[in-house]
Design brief:
174 residues
Amino acid sequence: VSLLKKAFTHSSYANEKHIEKYDNNERLEFLGDAVLELVISDFIYNAYPHMPEGELTKLRAGTVCEGSLAEKAREIHISEFIMLGKGEETTGGRNRDSILADAFEAVLAAVYLDGGIEPATKIVLRFVKKALEHVENAPFKDYKTLLQEIVQKNPEERLSYVLVAESGPDHDKR
């Protein structure tokens, strides 16, 4: 089975047509997710040299979320090529964000396996640059980090923090 055909084969279609267990897009989706994350991480790491790790992580997460990937899939009309089982087709699977995002990642993996990292990078950056353009013009939101950077540049200044209150669960304190 060709890589591209596999990338467009949803597991529901493969099950209905009794296609070989691994001849659907799930394994390609796994690889495409990793390629996507690597390309975006590399791009934002170099594009924003003074952005702290936590902010880089948030930026990457917003770029690779299901909704944004589905939007990219819609831009290039991936839904027209996805092979779905009857059940998924009748319940609107062709327009479901999760199916579109998975297919986008699978297509990206097919490109990567066929041509390597360079063509995969071109595809990712074609979409990512648009999504990240607003970041350079957006107001800076991490004032604590900004303040620490200013103080570090001025050794005569001193900075200390005092906890006044906290709320929320341990994994998401405020």
